[in-house]
Amino acid sequence: xxxxxxxxxxxxxxxxxxxxxxxxxxxxxxxxxxxxxxxxxxxxxxxxxxxxxxxxxxxxxxxxxxxxxxxxxxxxxxxxxxxxxxxxxxxxxxxxxxxxxxxxxxxxxxxxxxxxxxxxxxxxxxxxxxxxxxxxxxxxxxxxxxxxxxxxxxxxxxxxxxxx
Length: 164
Hints:
Layout (H helix, E strand, L loop, with lengths): L1 E6 L5 H12 L5 E4 L6 H14 L4 E4 L4 H6 L5 E4 L1 H10 L4 H12 L5 E6 L10 H20 L2 E6 L2 E4 L2
Helix pairs in contact: 5-6
């Protein structure tokens, strides 16, 4: 089964995705952490996620080649988070087409996967090309993921509502 949790930053989507995969897993799930250490602020966010998940997950870190990690994993996988993965891919000069190919391969796997993604497309159009490219890519990739997921949850104020 494939599931997507989408919502704004600090909406509670990560916690709810963790609860969801733990509730629905027979084996200890894998937490695929995609965030690269960038600065002290990101380290604080990463540390908070580590504390929240505790020992409930096997943690693997991979900022780019997430298909390679997921395809060899036998346990359900929580991808935390697709938004940071998109950021990493742009930073390392990968194209939107590269991202689509990677996600398409993942979505074709016969495996339980929960994706976490920030909903960044509800604001204004940014004044710089990189931000516009990121928002556009995030929107297009969220549509790809949601179209292939069995369940999609939108999270606001800590409440996840099933929309698919």
